[in-house]
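Appendix B. One record, verbatim.
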Amino acid sequence: MSNPPTPASSPRRRGEVSRRTKETSIVLSVDVDGGGSHQVDTGVPFFDHMLAQLGRHGGWDLVVEAVGDVEIDAHHTVEDVGIALGEAFAAALGDKAGIRRFASITVPLDEAAVEAVIDLSGRPYLHYDIDPPGEKILGDPPFDPQLCEEFWRAFITSAGVCMHLTMVRGRNTHHIIEASFKAVARGLRDAVRVEGFGVPSTKGVL
């Protein structure tokens, strides 16, 4: 009798997206079964740093090349990368057969701690309760932490993810935002883990 397929013998789960608008041009790929390698260039250094955290701690191989109108504002670039990443993530997971689906984790970074609760339900919903002090993070250009909510909303809408992000505590804006990206990364890493062979839903589809 032959053995059933195992996660190790399954095809690698990859997604690629090319997105072009009058405001941004993005080429992005994600391998959710990768090793955490990342090649990221969006023209927004702090955002690059956060996407690198997402790839590294999510266990993804992530490539993001984005050109946007950052001379006006980083908003278009951040939001459109979220859209593209969500589309690539959804493509990588396919029908989601065998995935764990649910995950929750609280991740600290020094004085900051952020909780991520995730359901790969196919129904996008974002509860975002992250309230850093509010100052922009220095860089060239500086990064407005409010853009993180726009990034996550774009991502979950394109990916079909239900996600609750809650700041447990924190004072340093950089630490709070970085803890949130690491929390999502580790949560998604757990939620996409293959531990069965059927779609984890009584509906038979996610």
